């Protein structure tokens, strides 16, 4: 069965906005429990703020580390759900139930399976 990565994005908020978002935790838990009960949920997690990020690059065998995200954008990657779904339509059906879809966005990407990789 194909897997889909649901990447969760939102705009950073002030303290009051963050409290409002964390107040949605019961809804998040409800969706996660339904995904788990349906046998769809592979893994999920929230991510720390981008100030905790470390970006790694290797150029000409030289390690380059920088604090913060790779790029400055309006929306930040806030978390993920890895879903095991029959097809994209099923993944969309589950992803639309995630509370962040109401104030941020959910990007669905198919995960490469071994049979999807080029031969060689």
Structural Rg: 17 Å
Low-confidence stretches: none
* General form: flat
CATH superfamily: Dimeric alpha+beta barrel
- The CATH class is Alpha Beta
Average residue-wise pLDDT: 91
Number of helices: 3
- The assigned structural class equals alpha+beta
Structure description:
The protein has 120 residues and is α+β, with helices and mostly antiparallel strands. The protein has one domain: Dimeric alpha+beta barrel (Alpha-Beta Plaits, 2-Layer Sandwich), CATH 3.30.70.1060. It is built from 3 helices and 6 strands; from the N terminus they run E-H-H-E-E-E-E-H-E. The strands form 2 sheets. Strands 2-5-1-6 form a 4-stranded antiparallel sheet, covered by helices on one side. Strands 3-4 form a two-stranded antiparallel ribbon. A hairpin with a 2-residue loop joins strand 3 and strand 4. The model has no long low-confidence stretch (mean pLDDT 91).
């Amino acid at each position: 069965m194909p897997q889909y990565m649901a990447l969760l994005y939102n705009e950073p908020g002030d303290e009051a906005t963050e409290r409002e978002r964390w107040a949605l935790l019961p809804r998040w838990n409800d969706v996660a429990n339904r995904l788990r009960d349906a046998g769809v949920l592979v893994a999920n997690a929230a991510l720390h703020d981008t100030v905790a990020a470390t970006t790694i690059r290797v150029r000409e065998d030289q390690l380059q580390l920088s604090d913060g995200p790779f790029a400055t954008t309006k929306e930040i990657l806030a978390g993920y759900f890895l879903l095991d779904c029959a097809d994209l339509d099923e993944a969309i059906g589950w992803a639309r139930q995630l509370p962040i879809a109401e104030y941020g966005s959910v990007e669905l990407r198919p995960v490469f399976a071994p049979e999807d990789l080029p031969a060689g």
